[in-house]
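Lab meeting, item 3. Inverse folding demo.
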């Protein structure tokens, strides 16, 4: 039986591929789990329309992420911290603190999108990366200052 794959399936194919599978596999697993559609001209047209809509939405999201990256590059966050020595701070500046500072500036970015190799433990200026989209990375400056 020919089917149109809706999602990538290991050892079978990529989304959009038209593959030949056993009838039982298609009817009992692929189609009920929304992994494939039976191959007909109507289903092929339906899949192509769905794919065009998804691509348009993806491009719109990419454009939004690029504009957000441009806005973040102009942004400077200031995070005041208590200091124990000249430059060493108590505790550290974490992703959660940076995400909170971004929210206060009006940017709702999840903390798991912020790339922080290790916690910030000193005063200074740091440039951090923010993953906004699979291929769009923004940068934000963080100033850690004495409280």
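The presenter then showed the designed sequence:
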């Amino acid at each position: 039986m020919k089917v149109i794959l809706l999602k990538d399936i290991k050892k079978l194919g990529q989304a959009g591929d038209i593959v030949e599978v056993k009838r039982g596999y298609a009817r009992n697993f692929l189609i009920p789990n929304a992994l494939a559609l039976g191959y007909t001209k109507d289903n092929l047209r339906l899949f192509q329309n769905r794919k065009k809509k998804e691509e348009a939405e993806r491009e719109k999201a990419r454009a939004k992420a690029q504009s957000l990256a441009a806005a973040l590059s102009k942004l400077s966050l200031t995070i005041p911290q208590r200091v124990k020595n000249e430059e060493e701070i108590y505790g550290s500046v974490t992703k959660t603190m940076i995400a909170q500072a971004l929210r206060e500036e009006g940017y709702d970015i999840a903390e798991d999108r912020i790339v922080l190799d290790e916690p910030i433990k000193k005063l200074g200026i740091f440039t951090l990366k923010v993953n906004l989209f699979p291929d769009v990375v923004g940068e934000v400056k963080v100033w850690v200052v004495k409280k």
